[in-house]
């Protein structure tokens, strides 16, 4: 069933065409993820499709009701008691102030309190912990259709059957989830690369053939001085004819060269060549540690006799629910205000926060990055290019950049500074998918120590070598990835389930044995059942 359609949509900002969509239809059962770089127009497209804003050209038709989870909106509580309980909000209605995670949960609860056939969701995981994200995933999985803007790749993988890419004003639909989309994009890249290499090869062959013919035409000798007049005339006529043929062939090749379709070289990210020795890195195995760490907000206990270690050169993720104390711990380490936390003398800490306190808005990107850099400008520009800021964009004033672009400049400043221990608080917030993947690559190549907070499970899985789990006012260390940690949590439950199965089997076997001794029993059938159960138990 067709539930939404858009036809010949165009939207301009001033003279710039930011969205062009020829035809787009949503049918019942379509679960569509929308992806694209920061500033590409994803939210604008969703607002057009939801009729929040009018396109400059074209029309949108709705054939059902719509619920919309907006990224930037302040909403009161509208959901019913049952939905509020699901989102753990029923006992917080008396509050005057809500945390970022609670505000997001309110917006989600409001949207799902309506029985709409389609849900629009713009970055609905913002400020949610992993439990909130899982609850959102379950809710969306039961919706008939949705359009979802998200940088959570696991969410897009587990829920979506189509991906809509917004790029350079154009909109393109791919079948499959996010991983399938990435595979298709890689195939497109490889095809473009082959086409470019074929173009370069053909161009070089044509240019070489033209040079050979031009050289051959010039090399045809004039008639010798001692040659008679009649012979000289014959030689000259023959030479002229040969030169004309060669020049015609050369001109034909030039025409082919001019008509050769130009193929652009696909962009490839430069490799980082960071001289990490300039940061004078510590040689200690453990660079940060704590024993009997306590911290409270008034009467509310956050950490109680907690202990942890951060190992040199490893990437460690802080994992836990909202309010467990992850950002608090980063702040305590950064401020060096608690004597329970030991930091080795040679550790130089760089701290990424969301506030952009380290940026000068009146200076250019490159000026900001080079301000405290111990690396060369070439290295700084390589880091920026890896973070998808390249070319003349490095000369833009930071004040005109988007939030996502400013985040990338902040990262670049850290990477080229003298810091050898990085603290990162929710580094993927406000970054588009490509930028998150670029940041993953840079962090994996980074030789220093990294301690970070993130609720993006895909990001944590890719970057982190180990975890510090914050729960129940304590910190538990886990050596391994997030997937390995989750698997270890499932094993005890699986073992308990297996034990219950064995008990049930043993009881059934005892029941069969008892029936075998009863008069009139079908001993053949019971014996067969007995042998089957013994085999299953073993």
From TrEMBL:
Domain ABC transporter: 4-193, 288-497
Coiled coil (UniProt feature): none
SMART domains: AAA
Keyword Phosphoprotein listed: no
Entry-linked PROSITE patterns: ABC_TRANSPORTER_1, ABC_TRANSPORTER_2
Keywords (A to Z) from UniProt: ATP-binding, Nucleotide-binding, Repeat
Molecular functions (GO terms): ATP binding; ATP hydrolysis activity
Domain of life where this protein originates: Bacteria
CDD domains the record matches: ABCF_EF-3 (cd03221)
Ranges of biased composition (kind: Basic residues): 216-225
Stretches the record annotates as Disordered: 213-233
PANTHER family tied to this protein: ATP-BINDING TRANSPORT PROTEIN-RELATED, RIBOSOME PROTECTION PROTEIN VMLR
NCBIfam families: ribo_prot_ABC_F
Name of the protein in question: ABC transporter
Origin species: Clostridium thermosuccinogenes
């Amino acid at each position: 069933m067709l539930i939404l359609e858009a036809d010949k949509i165009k939207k301009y900002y001033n003279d710039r065409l930011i969205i062009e969509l020829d035809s787009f239809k949503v049918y019942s059962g379509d679960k569509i993820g929308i992806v694209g770089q920061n500033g590409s127009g994803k939210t604008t497209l969703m607002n057009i499709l939801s009729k929040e804003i009018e396109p400059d050209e074209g029309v949108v038709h709705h054939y059902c009701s719509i619920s919309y989870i907006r990224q930037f909106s302040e909403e009161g509580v509208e959901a019913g008691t049952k939905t509020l309980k699901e989102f753990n909000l029923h006992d917080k209605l008396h509050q005057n102030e809500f945390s970022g995670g609670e505000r997001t949960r309110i917006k989600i609860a409001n949207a799902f309190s309506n029985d709409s056939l389609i849900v629009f969701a713009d970055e609905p995981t913002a400020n949610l912990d992993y439990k909130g994200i899982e609850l959102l995933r379950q809710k969306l999985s039961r919706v008939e259709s949705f359009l979802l803007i998200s940088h959570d790749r696991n969410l897009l993988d587990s829920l979506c059957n189509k991906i809509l890419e917004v790029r350079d004003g154009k909109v393109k639909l791919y079948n499959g989830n996010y991983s399938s989309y990435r595979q298709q994009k890689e195939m497109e890249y490889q095809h473009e690369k082959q086409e470019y290499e074929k173009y370069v090869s053909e161009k070089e062959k044509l240019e070489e053939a033209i040079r050979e013919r031009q050289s051959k035409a010039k090399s045809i000798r004039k008639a010798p001085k001692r040659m008679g007049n009649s012979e000289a005339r014959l030689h000259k006529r023959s030479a002229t004819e040969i030169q004309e043929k060669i020049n015609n062939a050369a001109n034909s090749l030039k025409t082919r060269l001019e008509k050769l379709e130009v193929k652009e070289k696909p962009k490839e990210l430069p490799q980082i060549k960071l001289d990490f020795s300039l940061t004078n890195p510590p040689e200690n195995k453990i660079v940060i540690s704590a024993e009997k760490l306590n911290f409270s907000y008034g009467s509310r206990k956050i950490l109680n006799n907690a202990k942890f270690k951060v190992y040199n050169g490893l990437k460690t993720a802080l994992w836990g629910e909202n309010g467990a104390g992850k950002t608090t711990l980063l702040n305590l380490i950064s401020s060096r205000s608690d004597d329970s936390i030991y930091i080795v003398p040679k550790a130089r800490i760089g701290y990424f926060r969301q506030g952009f306190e380290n940026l000068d808005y009146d200076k250019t990107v490159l000026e900001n990055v080079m301000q405290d850099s111990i690396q060369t400008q070439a290295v700084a520009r390589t880091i920026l290019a890896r973070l998808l800021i390249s070319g003349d964009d490095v000369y833009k004033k930071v004040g005109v950049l988007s939030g996502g672009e400013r985040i990338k400049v902040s990262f670049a400043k850290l990477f080229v500074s003298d810091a050898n221990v990085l603290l990162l608080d929710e580094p993927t917030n406000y970054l588009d998918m490509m930028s998150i993947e670029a940041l993953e690559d840079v962090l994996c190549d980074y030789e220093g120590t990294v301690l970070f907070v993130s609720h993006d499970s895909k990001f944590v899985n890719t970057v982190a070598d180990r975890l510090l789990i914050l729960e129940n006012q304590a910190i538990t260390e886990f050596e391994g990835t997030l997937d390995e940690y989750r698997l270890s949590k499932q094993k005890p439950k699986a073992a308990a389930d297996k034990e219950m199965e064995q008990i049930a089997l043993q009881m059934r076997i005892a029941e069969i044995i008892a029936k075998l001794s009863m008069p009139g029993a079908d001993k053949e059938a019971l014996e067969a059942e007995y042998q089957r159960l013994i085999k299953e138990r073993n």
